[in-house]
Amino acid sequence: DAVLAKEDMELRRFDGQAWSASLPTIAINSDDVSGDHVHVARTIEPTILHGGEVLVAGPVMLANTPANEE
Q1: What are the residue ranges in the chain where pLDDT is below 50?
Q2: What is the spatial distance between Cα 45 and Cα 26, in angstroms, rounded to a whole number?
Q3: Staple 25 to which of 4, 31, 48, 60, CB 3.0 to 4.6 Å?
């Protein structure tokens, strides 16, 4: 992480976060979820940022968020 920080780069994971189309990820199973209550179940590869800009959007797996966890 120190090497990346020196170059103003960052690896970001989104496990457990609420998912929306504005999240810099590629949802590899978007057809498997429905509704407005969706979260990132697993980050497959982290998103790579440079100076706050997205270089590579990382793939993620999504899941529906249970009603009691919203």
Answers
A1: none
A2: 10
A3: 60
